[in-house]
Amino acid sequence: MEGVDHLAFERNKAQFDVDAMKIVWAGSSHALEVSDRMSRLVASDPAFRKDNRAMLGRKELFKNTLRKAAYALKRIIELRLSEEEASMLRSFVDEPAFTDLHWGMFVPAIKGQGTEEQLKKWLPLAQKMQIIGCYAQTELGHGSNVQGLETTVTFDPKTDEFVIHSPTLTSSKWWPGGLGKISTHAVVYGRLITDGQDHGVHGFIVQLRSLDDHLPLPGITVGDIGMKFGNGAYNTMDNGVLRFDHVRIPRDQMLMRVSRVTREGKYVQSNVPRQLVYGTMVYVRQTIVSDASTALSRAVCIATRYSAVRRQFGATGGNPESQVIDYKTQQARLFPLLASAYAFRFVGEWLKWLYTDVMTRLQANDFSTLPEAHACTAGLKSLTTSATSDGIEECRKLCGGHGYLCSSGLPELFAVYVPTCTYEGDNIVLLLQVARHLMKTISQLGSGKKPVGTVAYMGRVEQLMESRSDVQKAEDWLNPSAVLGAFEARAARKSVACAKNLSKFSNPEEGFLELSNDLVEAARAHCQLIVVSKFIDKLQQDIPGKGVKQLLEVLCSIYALFHLHKHLGDFLSTGCITSKQGSLANDQLRSLYSQVRPNAIGLVDAFNYTDHYLSSILGRYDGNVYPKLYEEAWKDPLNDSVIPDGFQEYIRPMLKQQLRNARL
Ligand SMILES: CCCCCCCCCC/C=C\CCCCC/C=C/C(=O)SCCNC(=O)CCNC(=O)[C@H](O)C(C)(C)COP(=O)(O)OP(=O)(O)OC[C@H]1O[C@@H](n2cnc3c(N)ncnc32)[C@H](O)[C@@H]1OP(=O)(O)O
Ligand SMILES: Cc1cc2nc3c(=O)[nH]c(=O)nc-3n(C[C@H](O)[C@H](O)[C@H](O)COP(=O)(O)OP(=O)(O)OC[C@H]3O[C@@H](n4cnc5c(N)ncnc54)[C@H](O)[C@@H]3O)c2cc1C
């Protein structure tokens, strides 16, 4: 029935103030107001329609993305939107596009690695979109190992220029989004060579295409790398290939904040650490953590609403069948994902703060927190994107057969989301970076250097090696200190075990390779501890609204106890808890799921997503699923005609032949 809220009876069950929770989710009343206004603006404009994406061929799909990007910019200018509003509007357009790389990587790379002079020259051009840029780091043969890049950038003192060259096939730039067809410029990473000396990888601003006719400049070969996973999905993006044949750029197009080359060809390093060349990745990894909460909450919103609509079995005495959301197994799969979405939101908020703090310190030449920022962004990017990718797929399964339809919104969400596990650093490679940070922290404990930030608990390592959980009954697990104690002890013990094993190797690098599986597990335990502790920290804040804080406490306990249950082997084998305490945690989880159940729809409504943004019939706000699914099926191009193309040509003769054979 059109106009009827089929989920109203669920909404009436909510025991908390949903509007207040919306503010907590958005981060502030102001953020909620802006995101609400921008999402409605996009949803109400037919130019931003996206329900036909899965049906479009690559060229049509891509052209459509270009149209939307140009139209979005036109609206941003017409409506005089602020930077914050414009960025929100672009995110609600919800279609991966070259603009993501322009705003998300090209501009930040210049901001982070350019000198004042370079910012003055390039930022206005980029900000007004008079040039369009991308981030060209990865090569066909080299992605994770940035130090292994082959592209050469050789200084020619005769002309005061750099000569960029792709010496081998494997040195071809490969993957950069926006590069394939659209970008006019790129920040290109290559090995800087002056006077025959290799100074390692640096970034350079390079013009790729003419601003007059958009043709590649001399010496440049550029194109798209081809179709990617899933129909529609990430194929709106022109990931590209790029080769240089001795292309010349002026010397002042080297990004020179970290180091520079003088007119005479002398290489001069500033007092800024070399790792700042990797700074854009740190920035993007931080944004990816917040995006994880957005992607996961979308999937959870769809699966939760549909689980309340869907009924199977249990019809007794003329009553309807049971809502699948009432099955304990459905709750045990769904509610930890709901809790994870909130957990990632808050750890994302904290990470943003950490990043901003590091940036402020960098301005004052304080580089002390850079290793912590690198480890946290790398580790949390890895943890949250892996969990979100798995979570989206779990949500598809939670929706049964209908989840497999494109109109559920879940296949496309998965296909667009899943490369986050690879881009901006493969998730295993990044966890190994965290492990290095942990091993370094442990190795420095004896020197009296006090660990700070997220590794501060390592300073209590002796106590943590001995500690025993004092949980005696299920409710004791609701105590944040019981949870924190168990997670800290587990993380510390796993790291210490690795450090002890590493010390048995005469060659530490060999040991690191040999023990890398254990190191990855230790890094994961450390990152889970960060998520749990930041959720607990969030709950120390004043959170207004009836029942809001109480419900967040429930979600926090679910996040922690679900992971304790999932990794029980870790907690038991390291002796942090007993098997009895493990089973009490499980008892407590069941009770927590029951507390979430009446509030489930309210908790996903608090994400404040429009139906346009969700683009899911199963996740419709009004729960009017079946009529809309039925209606949608008839829109499929296969249903344009009763008899499909190809039937007369192939199937009718086949049928006839088979009938003839049968008669013989
Ligand atoms: C239906 C529609 C749904 C829509 C859903 C929405 C979903 C969102 C979709 C959004 C769409 C589009 C936007 C996304 C665009 C994505 C584009 C992707 C871009 C990219 O991928 S760019 C390329 C990224 N590449 C990488 O990340 C490479 C990974 N490798 C590395 O980072 C490094 O090589 C390394 C860290 C692995 C190793 O480096 P190396 O130099 O060898 O280092 P080490 O020797 O190990 O370490 C040296 C010391 O340096 C420290 N270090 C290393 N990195 C950093 C750093 N970044 N910052 C600070 N310090 C660093 C390291 O710790 C060592 O320190 P130490 O000497 O030990 O003290
Ligand atoms: C959709 C998409 C968009 C992208 N956009 C851009 C972009 O805009 N700009 C850009 O420059 N790049 C981009 N990339 C490239 C991306 O950053 C790289 O693919 C990524 O960094 C992973 O590197 P790789 O492909 O070399 O993987 P590899 O390193 O080859 O990984 C292959 C396997 O080897 C394993 N492995 C590698 N090293 C180690 C190790 N030391 N120890 C243990 N295991 C290891 C990995 O875990 C993985 O299982 C994009 C990629 C994708 C998929």
Low-confidence stretches: none
Second rung of CATH, namely the architecture of the domain at 133-277: Beta Barrel
Total number of β-strand segments? 11
End-to-end CA span: 55 Å
CATH fold name of the domain at 133-277? Butyryl-CoA Dehydrogenase, subunit A, domain 2
Q: Any idea of the CATH class of the domain at 133-277?
A: Mainly Beta
Describe it for me?
52% of the residues lie in helices and 9% in strands. With 664 residues, it is an alpha+beta fold. It has a domain at 133-277: Beta Barrel (Butyryl-CoA Dehydrogenase, subunit A, domain 2), CATH 2.40.110. The strands form 3 sheets. Strands 1, 2, 3, 5, 6 and 9 form a 6-stranded mixed β-sheet that branches. It has a 3-stranded antiparallel β-sheet with strand order 4-8-7, with no helix packed on it. A hairpin with a 4-residue loop joins strand 2 and strand 3. Helix 14 (480-502) runs antiparallel to helix 16 (516-538). The longest helix has 36 residues, at 328-363. The chain is globular, with a radius of gyration of 27 Å. Bound molecules: ligand LAWDYWNQ and flavin-adenine dinucleotide. Ligand LAWDYWNQ binds at residues 94, 96, 100-101, 104, 135, 137-138, 144-147, 177, 275, 278, 281-282, 291, 295, 370-371, 374, 412-413, 416-417, 423-425, 429, 433, 436, 440.
Write the layout of secondary structure elements.
Blueprint: H1 8-11, H2 18-26, H3 29-43, H4 58-78, H5 83-93, H6 98-113, H7 116-127, E1 133-136, E2 152-156, E3 161-165, E4 173-174, E5 185-194, E6 197-207, E7 220-224, E8 240-244, E9 247-250, E10 259-261, E11 267-269, H8 279-309, H9 328-363, H10 370-398, H11 410-417, H12 427-443, H13 461-466, H14 480-502, H15 508-514, H16 516-538, H17 548-566, H18 568-573, H19 579-596, H20 600-605, H21 611-614, H22 625-633, H23 647-663
Parallel strand pairs: 1-5, 2-5
Antiparallel strand pairs: 2-3, 3-9, 4-8, 5-6, 7-8, 10-11
Domain Acyl-CoA oxidase C-alpha1: 278-439
Domain Acyl-coenzyme A oxidase N-terminal: 17-132
Binding site for FAD: 138, 177
